[in-house]
Each structure stands twice: as C-alpha cells, then as structure tokens.
C-alpha cells in the first residue's frame, strides 16, 4: 500500500511539473492601447477609433460593445498576428454627451483583455485633430478650426515663430516627470499666441472634451491637476544663478541645448502671449524641479504677456526664473503649490493679478532673490493684486506668502482676503549660529534696509511672521528675537486697499469667471 501511495505521489508531482512547465511556456495575454485622447463624434455621424494590439499568443477574435451609439469592426489583425490595429467604426446616436466603445480581444490560447475608449458626442462637426511632436523647425501657424494635440515635449527652435490663432485649442497628452508633455519656446524662438476675450487660446489636457468655439468642457474641474506638463518660454534676458549667466530650465534633460535660458539681452523678445488660458497641467520632477503652468526663464522685456489664466495646475501657476518681462492681468486658480513664484532676481513688474487659493496647496506668493553675484541687482514689482483664500477646499493653503532667499523688490497695493484667521505673511531671516545675530543677507535683512518694501498691503486678520530659514525639525537653530519680529511688524502694516485693483470684468473671459469662482 505504501509503495502504491508513493507511486501516486510521484505521478502527481510529475503531472504538476508538466502543468507548471505548460503554464510557463504559454505566452502572455493580449495588451491593448486605446486612443490617447477623447474621440469627438458629431451626433448621428460616424468616426473610426483605433486600438493598438500586442498579442504574444496570436490574434484569434474580438468582440465590441458601445454606449451612446453603435460600433462595428472596420479592420482587424490577421489570424495569428502578434501585433496590429483593430479599427472600430463608432456611430453616435442622437443625444450629445459621453459615450464609450469597448473591445475584448482573445488570443489563440483563449486569454483575453478588455479596453475602453472615451467618446464625446457633439452637436457640431468634430474638428480635425493634428498631432504635433518633436521640434518645430520652420515658421508654423495653428488655426482655430483644428485641435492641436501635443505628443511629448514640443520645441519651437531658435529663429522660428509659432503663431496660434485666436480661439485655438491645444491639448497635451498625459505623461509625468521628465516625459511630461510641454510646449517649449527655445531662446531665439517666438510664440505669437494672440487670443481675445471672446476667443481665448486654450491649452488643456486630452482628457478635456472642450471643442473649438467653447470656453470650457464638461469632463474636468479645478481639482483635475497634472494631466500634462505646461508652457515653457525661454529667453536671453539676465538671470542670477551661482557661477554662470545661463542655466538649464527645469524639466528638460541636460543634453537638450534648447533648454538653456539667460543672457545679457534685457529687452529680448520671445513674442506675444495674450488672452491665453492654461488648464489642468503641471508635473513635479525630482529634487524640487517641476514643470509649471507657465514657466518663464530669462524672458526679456520685449515680450508681451497679458491676460493670462492658469487653472487647476499641479505645481506653481507661474514661475519666473530671472528675466525682465512684464506681466499684466494674471489669473491663477487652484494651483497645487505656489500661485506666483519668483526666482533668480526677476526684475520685471506683474501689474494686476488675482489668485484663488485653496485645496492642498502652498503659498500664494513665493518670492526669492538672486542666487549668484552676476545680475544680482534685479528687483521685482508686484502691484494691484488680490489673493483670495478658499478654506472650503480640503487641506487649505499653507500660508499667504513666503518671502525668502534674499527677496528684493516691492509689493504694492495687494490684498489678502478670505483665508482662515491666523494665516501668515512669512519673512525669512538668517542668523549666525554662534551668537544668534543676523547673519547672511536674507529677506528680513532686505526688509530692514528697505530693499524689500511693502506699500499699501491689506491683510486684516492675518499675521506677519519672521522665521529662521535654517530651522528644521532636526535643527531648531536660533530663535527669532522679539526685536526682529517687531521690526517686521513695523515695516509691514495692514492698510486698506481702496483703488487700483482690476475690476472683476477683467477676468470674465476665464474659465474661473465662467465657473463663478471670482
């Protein structure tokens, strides 16, 4: 009996090994890639939807299901094919709105996979979608009757002008980190993006179902952040960085020379950006590096930037790395980090701005000064602005603003309103750890010597707070002397802002205005 049982066990083990060997030799099942963006189909009309297939086990069959219409197979891979496209013709029914088409692919080993593509059924004819990738090497115009889809980083090269007509919609494909989709204007390139209040130019995500002629889609809201990268403009105006007069912009590999910015041409001209809304973008890279909604690196005063909106961005709304460009009428709503971030001795003026601030975010303003000895005298001006807290959003804003790292310039006619009581206007100080006296230059020392000036700033219900920039949980450092806190409070006094702020109608063209967030 024991011998019989032993033989059975051996036979079972042999069978198990054979089964395992059979499993290990069976190829992986199908993999399906749906279209990167929503497919627009006019009601009652048809459009093709392409799915890309990889089938190590060989193609056998596919089944199709549709919502909001009907779908049939147009073309499919040959029997046994390991790669190929399955093209489905979707016909929309009479109702506008969302639809889907799903396919289930089965291989020769009867393994299967299902994937779904999104459909947007529209009353108007679906526009042509033009996919753009790589470099733009000759003068190019994008027109308002088409949607332009960015596939990866698109670079307008030195000496080239990209013109975008009023009312044009540009959509970025999904992607994060170093591979995030972005439109980048290299030094010497120009972006002529001249929208109007009636027909703004809109940069958004491929997940947004907005169509030409519309101000907003229905698939994304202010909490949909980081769906693509953003817009990057680089110029030859002075910047202040350690040991150099030029630098590589964040988010671009070191080997990409088109990512350099900075120089000695203060009046450098990178084009015109007017009535442009940038939505649902931004991505955080590593080591504090990021792609913001609008990144301006060494952009000169010959450039025109006015009537700009950044909406629902995962990192900063607008970040300026040096340069001397002036900005007018800027709206930033529901950014994930700072609304306006100034670095590297930016020396221009931002006149007229509105920040709607709340929902897992950081500062309304984060202001730094020069980082090197070259071009270290540049001073910013921030004037005629409102920063409005939205405490209804979960997690709320960290603070009103943070002036640090030798911030130098003027804040004039700015109001902070709507935040929970106790939020801080922060000023960084540096202390000699040996005797706790003021050490190297920082925002507080500049405030004390009137290099950093606050003039008619209203922050009733909130506090000025000097902090030791070296302090951390592991190194509490020197405590801030009461005298220094008192000096800051005497230099930054809340005064009523009564005139000079842009009227609410300034922002009526934005999606923020359209959604009633003002």
Spans where pLDDT lies below 50 across 5 or more residues: 1-23
In terms of DSSP E residues, the strand content is: 35-45%
Output the number of helix runs. 4
Report the mean per-residue pLDDT as an integer: 91
Report helical residue fraction.
Answer: under 10%
What distance separates the N and C termini? 87 Å
Shape field: elongated
Class inferred from helices and paired strands: mainly beta
**What Rg, in angstroms, do the CA atoms define?**
28 Å
Note the main sheet: 23 strands, parallel
Would you kindly provide a written description of the structure presented here, covering whatever features stand out?
It is a single chain. With 518 residues, this protein is mainly beta. It contains 4 helices and 37 strands. The protein has a 23-stranded parallel beta sheet that branches. It has a 4-stranded antiparallel beta sheet with strand order 1-3-6-5, with no helix packed on it. A hairpin with a 5-residue loop joins strand 21 and strand 22 (290-291). The chain is elongated and about 80 Å long.
Summarize the structure.
The chain is mainly β and 518 residues long.
Blueprint (SSEs and pairs):
Layout: H1 2-25, E1 31-33, E2 39-42, E3 46-54, E4 59-67, E5 69-75, E6 83-92, E7 97-107, E8 112-122, E9 128-136, E10 140-142, E11 146-156, E12 161-164, E13 169-172, E14 182-185, E15 190-194, E16 201-205, E17 230-234, E18 247-248, E19 260-261, E20 271-279, E21 283-284, E22 290-291, E23 294-297, E24 304-311, E25 318-321, E26 326-333, E27 340-343, E28 349-357, E29 361-367, E30 380-389, E31 397-403, E32 409-417, E33 424-429, E34 431-432, E35 437-438, H2 443-448, E36 452-458, E37 463-468, H3 482-491, H4 511-514
Parallel strand pairs: 2-8, 9-11, 10-12, 11-13, 11-14, 12-15, 13-16, 14-17, 15-20, 16-20, 17-23, 20-24, 23-25, 24-26, 25-27, 26-28, 27-29, 28-30, 29-31, 30-32, 31-33, 32-36, 33-37
Antiparallel strand pairs: 1-3, 3-6, 4-7, 5-6, 7-8, 18-19, 21-22, 34-35
């Amino acid at each position: 009996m024991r011998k019989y049982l032993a033989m059975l066990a051996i036979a079972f083990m042999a069978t198990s090994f054979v089964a395992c060997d059979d499993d290990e030799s069976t190829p992986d099942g199908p993999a399906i890639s749906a279209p990167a963006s929503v497919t627009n189909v006019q009601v009652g009309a048809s459009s093709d939807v392409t799915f890309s297939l990889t089938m190590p086990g060989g193609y056998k069959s596919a089944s199709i299901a549709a919502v909001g219409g009907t779908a049939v197979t147009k073309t499919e891979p040959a029997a046994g094919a390991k790669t190929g496209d399955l093209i489905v013709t979707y016909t929309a029914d009479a109702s506008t709105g969302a639809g889907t088409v799903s396919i289930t692919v089965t291989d020769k080993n009867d393994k299967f996979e299902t994937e779904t593509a999104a459909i947007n059924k529209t009353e108007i004819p679906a526009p042509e979608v033009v996919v753009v990738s790589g470099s733009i090497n000759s003068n190019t115009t994008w027109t308002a009757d088409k949607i332009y889809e960015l596939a990866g980083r698109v670079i307008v090269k030195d000496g080239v002008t990209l013109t975008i007509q009023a009312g044009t919609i540009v959509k970025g494909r999904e992607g994060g980190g170093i591979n995030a989709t972005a439109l980048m204007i290299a030094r010497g390139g120009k972006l002529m993006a001249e929208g109007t209040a009636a027909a703004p130019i809109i940069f958004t995500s491929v997940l947004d179902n907005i169509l030409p002629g519309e101000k907003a889609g229905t698939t994304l809201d202010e909490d949909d952040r980081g769906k693509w990268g953003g817009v990057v403009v680089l110029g030859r105006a002075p910047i202040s960085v350690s040991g150099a007069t030029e630098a590589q912009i964040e988010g671009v590999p070191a080997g990409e020379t088109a990512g350099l910015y900075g120089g000695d041409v203060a009046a450098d001209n990178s084009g015109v950006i007017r009535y442009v809304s940038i939505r649902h973008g931004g991505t955080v890279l590593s080591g504090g590096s990021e792609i913001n909604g609008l990144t301006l690196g060494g952009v000169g005063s010959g450039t025109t930037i006015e009537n700009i909106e950044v909406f629902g961005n995962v990192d900063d709304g607008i970040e300026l790395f040096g340069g001397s460009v002036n900005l007018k009428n800027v709206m930033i709503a529901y950014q994930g980090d700072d609304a306006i971030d100034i670095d590297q001795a930016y020396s221009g003026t931002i006149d007229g701005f509105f920040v709607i601030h709340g929902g897992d975010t950081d500062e309304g303003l984060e202001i730094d000064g020069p980082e090197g000895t070259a071009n270290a005298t540049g001073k910013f001006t921030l004037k005629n602005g409102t920063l409005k807290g939205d405490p209804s959003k979960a997690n709320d804003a960290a603070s009103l603003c943070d002036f640090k790292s030798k911030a130098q310039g003027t804040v004039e006619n700015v109001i902070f309103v709507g935040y929970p009581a106790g939020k801080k206007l922060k000023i960084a100080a540096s202390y000699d750890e040996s005797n706790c006296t003021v050490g190297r230059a920082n925002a507080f020392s500049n405030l004390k010597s009137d290099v950093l000036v606050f003039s008619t700033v209203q922050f009733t219900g909130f506090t000025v707070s000097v902090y030791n920039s070296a302090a951390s949980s592991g190194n509490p450092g020197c405590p801030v002397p009461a005298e220094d806190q008192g000096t800051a409070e005497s230099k930054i006094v809340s005064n009523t802002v009564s005139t000079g702020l842009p009227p609410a109608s300034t922002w009526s063209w934005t999606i923020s205005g359209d959604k009633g967030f003002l």
